[in-house]
Structures are given as C-alpha cells and as structure tokens.
Amino acid sequence: MDSYRQILKNGLWVNNQAFVALLGLCPLLAVSNTLINGLGLGIATTLTLILSNTLISLVRQQVGGEIRLPVFVLIIASIVTIIELIMNAYFYELYLILGIFIPLIVTNCAIIGRAEAYASKNPVGASAMDGLSMGLGFTAALVLLGALREMIGSGTLFANAHLMFGEAASGMTLTLIDDYEGFLLAILPPGAFIGLGLLIALKNVIDKRLAKPSQQTVTVDFATKKA
C-alpha cells in the first residue's frame, strides 16, 4: 500500500509529466484554452496510460528486446484508436474540437516514456497505478491551465460542459465577470506558454516552502548534538 501511495504522489506531484518532466507539452498548450477541453484530452490520455501500462506489463516477458519499442507503439496505437472511435461515437463535438490531438496521443512522450521506463520492468498492479497517477497528474495540469486561460480569456468557467456531460450540463457555465470583453492573449498560444510558466513557478514555490521545515529540523538536531 505504501508503494502505491508513493506511485500516486510521484505521478501527481513529484514527477508530474507536465510541470516537472515537461513532456506532452504540444497537446497541453494547444487544447487547454478551456477547462472542458483540457478535461476531455486528460481523460483520454489517462485511459491510454492505464491500459497501455497494464498490457505492456502483461507481455513484457514475452517480448524480445529487439522488437520491444515497436510492440509498445503498436499496443498504444491500438488503444488510442479504440478511444478515438468511442469519442467519435459518443462525444462527437468534443472530438472535433480536440481534432488531431486525439490520434497524436500515440506519440506522446509521456506515454511511451512510462511504457519503457516503468511498465516494461514492473508487475501489472504497480504499472496500472503508475499509469493512473501519471494520467491524473497530466489531467490536473490540463485542467488547471485550461481553467486559468478560460477565466482570464473569457471570464467564464465550465463553458461548453455539455460537450462532455450532455445537454443537462448546459447550465453549468459560470460567468465570473458580467459584460467581460475578454483578454485575447490568454486564449492564444502565447497565453498558454505564460500560463504554464506561472503554474510551474507556483509549484516550485510550494516545493521550497514544504522543504523548509525539514531543513530547519535538521539544523536544530545538529545544534542539539553539539550542545
């Protein structure tokens, strides 16, 4: 249980694929202009990570080193194709908005990287948990960046929620500022880079503040021993 807890912490915070490893930035920056867009791509990526890690862990001992990477890519591509077809059937409007970035999940370095670095060397349970944690961490980055850009760029939150949750969710849109004319830079590509930089800076500040108490404790312990 402790190892699973550490895996979850690693994916969500310590080694977050977007904020720390800086992988998968192309879809992260391209589709995160609203919270719902980010959530949609994040869920698709998370499902891909869980399923690909699980399958790769299952076949890792039957695949030779010479064909390891082609087999991994084939597994990931098959899973992404299934997810793409499901989105096309049940979430068509969202599928059109996300566009090419759904099939491009196959080439996401975060997914191939976890397959090679973790799933190919660990048992099924741990590999599935690793896929879940890394996917949730990537989804959190997409949602946070999408929410930030949507709030600043449009003055709304949960716009177009019906694309994921059906017509019953049409009333979920929150208008934060009435008669807001919008801030175009926030929803353009430069706004994505600026927003990501701000979120990474915030994470670094939090990490430094969390590290200070332990450093102070070590200092006190040494002082006590000298005394």
What does this structure look like?
This protein is mostly helical and 227 residues long. The protein has one domain (2-226). It is built from ten helices and two strands. The protein has helices spanning 2-14, 25-31, 35-59, 68-90, 92-98, 109-119, 124-154, 162-165, 184-187, 189-226; strands at residues 156-157, 174-175. Strands 1-2 form a two-stranded antiparallel ribbon. It starts with a helix and ends with a helix.
Decide which structural class fits the backbone: mainly alpha
SSE order: HHHHHHHEHEHH
Query: Widest sheet: strand order?
Result: 1-2
Strand content: under 5%
Oligomeric state of shown chains: single chain
User: Uncertain spans, ≥5 residues at pLDDT below 50?
Assistant: 222-227
Helix share of residues? over 70%
